Structures are given as C-alpha cells and as structure tokens.
Amino acid sequence: MKRKEKLKCPVCTKKFIPRTFYPEEAMFSTSDGKKLSGFNGYINSSGVKPVEVILSSWITYCPYCNYMLKFVKEIVKKERIQSQSVLIKDITKKYNNYYFGFPFEDYSQYLSSVTVEIKSKIETSLIDLDLTSFENIYEIKDTFKLLIKFYANLEKYCNSQLHEETDRNLAHKIKLLKLPKDLEQILLELNEIRNKSINSDYELSEEDKTKVKGAINGFIFSLIEKHLKPIIDGKKLKTKYQYLDIRDLIAEIKIYLKNYFSIKFKTGRTADNEIISFLEQIMIN
C-alpha cells in the first residue's frame, strides 16, 4: 500500500482520507476463564494455537456510509529457528512479533502536508514581494513622522518596481502602480498633504491622521493581496483539496500569516485585528 493513497470504501466505493486509525486489541481466553489481550493473552490462551494470529488491528470508518475497515497492527508468528548445526534436534520454534504503523495517511497527516505545501508557496511569494521597506513602520507613533517615513519608503518601492520612471515625480509613480482607485486617490491626496506639511506650517488634522493610518494599511494589504490571493483563495483551496475540511486549512494558514505579519511589521493589537479581518476577507471571497 502507498501511505498517501486515498482509501477507497469497499461498500460505497467512495475515496476518503481517514480521520484517524483507532487501535483494537484481540482478546484471548485463558485456561482459567480469564480474558487477556495482546501477546501474553495469546501465549496463555487455552486450546490449540494457530501458527499465526492477529494480536491487534487498526480500525477506521468510511465517513460516507460508516462502514468499518480493519488493518493489521500487530501479528505474532510461530517460526522455526535453526542454529548453525545441521542436527534436526537443534531446530526450535519461536514466537516473533511484527508491528505495522498506519496503513494509510490519516487526516491530521494530510492536513499537515498540505499546510507545509501552502506555506512554502506563500514564503516564495512574499520573498518576491519584498516588503522590507515597510518593516517596523508601525513602531512610529508620531503621525507626521509616520507620514514622512511611509512616503519615503513608498518612493523606494516605486523605484524598485518602475525602473524606467525613477526620475518622475511620486504622484506619477503612484498612478503607475495600478492600485485600487480609492487607494490611489487617498495616496495622491496624502502626498499633497505631505508636501504642504514639509513646505509650510500646515498641521495634520485628525481626519488626516486617520487617513495616514488607513492608507498605510490599505497599501500594504493591497500588495499582499495581489501576491497571495491566487495561493490562499478559499474557493480555489476547497476545489483543489476536496478531501480536507477547508475550515481547518484556512485556520492553519491564518495563524501562520498573522504571526508572520505581526513579527514582520511589529504591529500592535489594533493592527493585528485589521490583519485578521483582511485575511478573512481575501481567503473567503
């Protein structure tokens, strides 16, 4: 058997991944009427002993029709052991135990292998995305300094993506990034506010401060979505991994990404909640 094969039910013929395998011990009756399990139970059992017997089994069931399936977990065999001598009297009999692990990959193993596969794709995509310019951005508490730092990093990012446009002004570069229109508009507005703040006595209003934080989240999330959505889209995952409960896989991916972004950007609790909400949206839609 191949461990990673899907198990096929002999009754309903549907294929499935076993949730798990449950051990079942064989019971043997001793000469004094007691019930014992395992090897000792077999050795001490009364009556004629067969030369081979199943001591325990792995049990699972079909989730579609509830048919129970059994596989050997442990068997004992009475085998002839011959010494170096050629004399017949030197031939003895001995009981040997043979153990077998899960005959097929179970659900938890399958979920783990799929999660590792998805994580590998995510890591490769995030390396290509290169968010290093925006690391630690959430550590800046002063909104004006945050605005200046963000746009400095934004220009670096634009230059890394638009090699032939490095001499153009930032507003032009923002338009070439092909961002969602509402995000593009906010970034252009804040760029003008940044210029006014630097070149005059203009002070950021509370509305401006709210826009700054929203623009940073929106821009970073937009880049992440562009790279990750093809990998973690819930509907695509459900179609590809039909033997999984997609909720289990999504939960594993969300935990991984939340931890990744929290560490990467050193976010606070509020930003963490926004990350969770963002992941929920792009993985379900």
What share of the residues lie within helices? 40-55%
Q: Largest sheet, described in full?
A: 4 strands, antiparallel
Number of helices: 9
Shape: rod-shaped
The figure for the number of domains is: 2
Radius of gyration: 32 Å
Mean pLDDT: 84
Cα distance spanning the termini: 39 Å
Secondary-structure element order, as H and E? EEEEEHEEEHHHHHHHH
* Structure classification: alpha+beta
In short:
With 285 residues, the protein is α+β, with helices and mostly antiparallel strands. It has nine helices and eight strands.
List keywords for this structure.
four-stranded antiparallel β-sheet; 8 strands; alpha+beta; 285 residues; single chain
How would you describe this structure to a colleague?
This protein is of the alpha+beta class and 285 residues long. It folds into two domains: 99 residues, no CATH class; 177 residues, no CATH class. The strands form three sheets. A four-stranded antiparallel beta sheet has the order 3-6-7-8. The chain has a two-stranded antiparallel ribbon with strand order 1-2. A two-stranded antiparallel ribbon has the order 4-5. Strand 4 and strand 5 form a beta hairpin. Helix 8 packs antiparallel against helix 9. The longest helix is centred in the C-terminal third of the chain and has 27 residues. The mean pLDDT is 84.
